[in-house]
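hey so i finaly got around to running the thing on Omp85 from Oligella ureolytica. pasting the sequence first so u can double check i didnt mess up the copy paste, my clipboard has been acting weird all day
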Amino acid sequence: MSQSTIAEVRITGNSTIQQDALEHNLVLNGIVAGNNLNPQRLEKLRQHIINHYRYFRRYEAQVETRLTPRDGGQVDVELFIDESLAFRGLPEGYNDDPYADDVYTEKHRRAYETSSIDDDDEDLPDATISLGLGYGSKGVNYQASVIKRRLFDSDASLRLSALRDRYETNVDLSFSKPNFLQPSLRLDANIFYDSYDNYRSRTAAPYKRKTYGAQFLLNKPLDRDSSIFGGLRYTHNKLSKIHPDYSRALYLKSIGEERWDFSADDIDLILGWKFNNFNHRYFPTKGVGLKLEGNISLPGSDNRYYKVKLDAQGYYPLSATENWVIAPKASFGYAKGMDSREVPFYQNFTAGGQETLRGFAYGSVGPRALYSSTPQTRVSTLPAAYQQLTNRVVGGNALASASVELVIPNFYLKEKYRSQFRTSLFVDAATVWDTQKDKLHSLVSRNGRSGDIRVSAGIAVQWQFPMGVLSASYALPVKKYPGDRLEQFQLSLRGSF
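ok and heres what it spat out for the 3d tokens, dont ask me to read them lol
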């Protein structure tokens, strides 16, 4: 049987994959005008594109190869890709590779964008080793992870990950099993160790914490865009090197501790809901993302409190080409002690940094510490013992932040580079306060004022390159208060190789 000759090759649809990357792989697979049609190579490429969306962008796309016969044994080849919402993938609860975000780029992504597809390669590797280097509000950070998929020839995955930055060292061993007990129900379990020491911070009231524990979560999708999750978490915390502060003294007294060094064991119930219909995993131009998460400590825990946080973000295009986009964002958090116990100070909210309030230093916004004017070996809650005002932040039990961002066209770049960058103008605002005004020391009465809102405005640029994302922002403070620590230029880098 004679083979058909390719007359014309076209790429259609709305794919955000760079045109030259698609053309490059068509050429490398011999799918060009004048060549004989190889259906196996064409199908291999189609499956590779599907897996690119599924495992690296975390959503589904419709990918079709359409053949139109011509006279004389010729055929037209059309590569059609549709990323529209009608073909969005299943929510996180369905995802059989929950650790895809650990590896920003893998061999198969690099192969897709820069080299040919090897027939001997698996579309999804059984094992992945990733090393990462980043920079952000906590200085330089180092990351590493090892992922084993198809564990014991099943659909389960195992991950060992580690992270280290200026203040923190974290090690996590996690296990994920989709279709647990029933289809679409996913089990995520992990054991963890964390060491935190912020004595080098120039904004936070210092303390040292060592934590270990285990967590078990079940994820259940509700539809293509939303899912619920819930589970239990056991945590052991050992705290030391706490600089005597009035608000922390109130907390320690409430749980019956007499010394500044102490340990706490807690079991928390975790519940949450997520919704996400962004049209793109990276640099979305339309859609809404919502996350509501809360935890409450169960009887038998040393601490008794609950904590709730809502995060919301939206993208709304202002033009048909979607290069002008308005992007509002808001977060609200609240925590409250129960059974006459205060919220643990290491669970307090703060603001500042690229995630909440650009132009202000990380964690620099929130109620401030009132130190003891004399050394203490045992915890005292006498107000007269605390007279030393500071600019060190201890945080509060309530948070409200909001941001409005205007994404603008990358007119300063050549056309082929514009999809890799996002430029925006923004206004950020945030406040953190303590709602228990009756327990505030008279010298720090401003700690209970929700109206002490900080505001900044500026410009931000993000660059998505083959090994990660680089984000930079420059902000001017519109509203600040005495003692605020500013960082007008902020830079963060997230990547792996």
